[in-house]
Amino acid sequence: MSAEPLQILIDGEYYAEADAKISVFDHGLLYGDGVFEGIRFYHDRVFRLEEHIDRLFDSAKAIHLAIPATPAEVCQMVVDTIAKNDLHDGYVRLIVTRGTGALGLSPYQCEKGSIICIASTITLYPKEYYDDGLILATCATRRPTHDTLSPSVKSLNYLSNVMAKVEALAAGAQEGVMLNTEGYVAECTGDNIFIVKNGIIYTPTVASGSLNGITRKAVMELIEEANLPLKEIQMARYELYTADEMFLTGTAAEVVPVREYDKRVIGDGKPGPVTQQMLAAFRNLVETTGTPIY
Ligand SMILES: Cc1ncc(COP(=O)(O)O)c(C=O)c1O
C-alpha cells in the first residue's frame, strides 16, 4: 500500500486528502440529499462492481437525481481511483450528492450532482467476531417505511441507522436489529440478517424494509449453489430468538455469525455449520471473482 495521503476523486479531479473538500452549499451536506455505495476490493479485483453501480443509479433515480456520468464511466472512476492510490485490498466509498445550490430544499436549485470517490484500506471486524459471533439487541428506532423514504434507497440520510447503532451500543451489543413499523424484523443497522431453523435458511423479504444487499444476494446464490433450502419471509423477533443459527451479511462485515440476541443465546452460542459453510464460501467467492483493477 502507498504511504502517501489518499488521492480522492471529486468531479473528475484528484485531490490529496487534506484538500478534498466540497462546498458548504452542497445539498448533500445541507439536506442529506444524495446517494452512496460502499464497495470492497480484494486482491486487485472489485467485488460485484456492476451491481453496486446499478444500485447507485437506482437509488439516484428513485430520488430524482441525475448522475452526471454513465454507469460504465462510474465503474471506471472506481477502478481508476483504486489504481491511482496503488491499493490492492480495501474499501471504496462512492457518493453522489445533489450538488451546490442556494439554501432551500428544492433540488432544482442545484445545477449538477457531484461524484466523489474515496478508495481506502478497511479496518476489519476483530477476528473474534467471526470465531465467536456477535451480540445483538433490538433497537427502538424503526426502519423508514415505504411511504416515507424507500428503505431500498441507499441515501445520505442514515440518521435513523446512526440512532439505532447508538441504541445497540448502549444495550451492550455490537449490532442492532431494526424492526419495521409493524414490528417485523427488517435488518441490522448496516447488514442484512439470515437465520437457520431445522435445516432451512430464512431471510426477511426486501419488502420488510431491508436494503437489497449485494452481499445478501451473493449469499443467496451461494445457498442455491449448495442446494440448501432458502425462504424469504416476513420475520418476527420470535423467529430470531428461536433460531438454530444466525448470521449477518454486508459489504464491510462480509458474513459474520451471531451468538446472542436480546440476551437469548442463538443455538448453542457458537457459529453453526451453515454459517461456517457460508462464511467459507463467501470468502472463496471474493477471492476468485471481481472486476480486475490493474
Ligand atoms: C442499511 C443497510 N443494510 C444492509 C447493508 C448490506 O448491504 P451490502 O451487502 O450491499 O453492503 C448495508 C450496507 O450497505 C446497509 O447500509
Please name the defining characteristics of this protein.
294 residues; alpha+beta; D-amino Acid Aminotransferase, Chain A, domain 1; D-amino Acid Aminotransferase, Chain A, domain 2; 2 domains; seven-stranded antiparallel sheet; 16 strands; 29% helix; 28% strand; binds pyridoxal-5'-phosphate
Write the layout of secondary structure elements.
Elements: E1 7-10, E2 13-16, H1 27-31, E3 34-42, E4 45-46, H2 49-62, H3 71-84, E5 90-97, E6 114-120, H4 127-132, E7 134-138, H5 159-170, E8 175-179, E9 185-188, E10 192-197, E11 200-204, H6 214-225, E12 230-233, H7 237-241, E13 245-250, E14 254-261, E15 264-265, H8 273-288, E16 291-292
Parallel strand pairs: 7-8, 7-14, 11-12
Antiparallel strand pairs: 1-2, 1-6, 3-4, 3-5, 4-16, 5-6, 8-9, 10-11, 10-13, 13-14, 14-15
Helix pairs in contact: 2-3
Describe this structure in words.
This protein is α+β, with helices and mostly antiparallel strands and 294 residues long. It is built from 8 helices and 16 strands. It has helices spanning 27-31, 49-62, 71-84, 127-132, 159-170, 214-225, 237-241, 273-288, and strands spanning 7-10, 13-16, 34-42, 45-46, 90-97, 114-120, 134-138, 175-179, 185-188, 192-197, 200-204, 230-233, 245-250, 254-261, 264-265, 291-292. Strands 7, 8, 9, 10, 11, 12, 13, 14 and 15 form a 9-stranded mixed β-sheet that branches. Strands 2-1-6-5-3-4-16 form a 7-stranded antiparallel β-sheet. Bound molecules: pyridoxal-5'-phosphate. The site of pyridoxal-5'-phosphate (PLP) has 14 residues, from α6 and β13.
